[in-house]
Design brief:
Layout lengths: L7 H10 L27 E4 L7 H12 L6 E4 L13
Parallel strand pairs: 1-2
């Protein structure tokens, strides 16, 4: 997943439904839909886009907020060449 792909909010709904997120409320999942796979057994990575290399911490916070996760296992630079910053997508 990556901020620039626009899929973080949808994945956040899934993660919350599996009880991996910060809150299960509003996920649309029932109690029986909770995952039997612990979060620690799943490797989740994301990318910081090249326009946000000057604000990596803020971009990571945005990703964690949108996905509802407490942590990522890997956070990489999508393209290691800085591009003109246009701000975080909201």
């Amino acid at each position: 997943m990556a901020e620039s792909y626009g899929n973080q909010a949808e994945l956040g709904k899934l993660f919350r439904g599996l009880s991996w997120g910060t809150s299960n409320s509003g996920s649309g999942f029932t109690e029986s839909a909770k995952s039997r796979v612990p979060r620690t057994d799943v490797f989740i990575s994301s990318k910081v886009w090249a326009t946000n290399l000057n604000a990596v911490g803020a971009a990571l916070d945005f990703t964690l907020e949108e996905t509802g996760l407490v942590y990522l296992d890997l956070y990489i630079i999508h393209w290691p060449v800085p591009l003109r910053s246009v701000g975080l997508v909201s």
